[in-house]
Design goal:
It contains two helices and no strands. By secondary structure, it is mostly helical. The chain is rod-shaped.
Length: about 60
Amino acid sequence: MAKAKGSGADKLKGKAKEALGKVTGDESLKAEGRTDQAKGKAKKAMENAKERARGTDRSLRDKES
């Protein structure tokens, strides 16, 4: 299965920002970290949906043969 570009990086970067925000008490940085994590999760979900659609397309083409 193809991996979404940057999804893991976004989640990792987000976790680091959120942790740093917690340590420093910076609510803005914590929120930015949560946003980055959500972006990573959304990218991964989109890639999974694309892969499922490709599989469905392949399955339908195989049935036509």
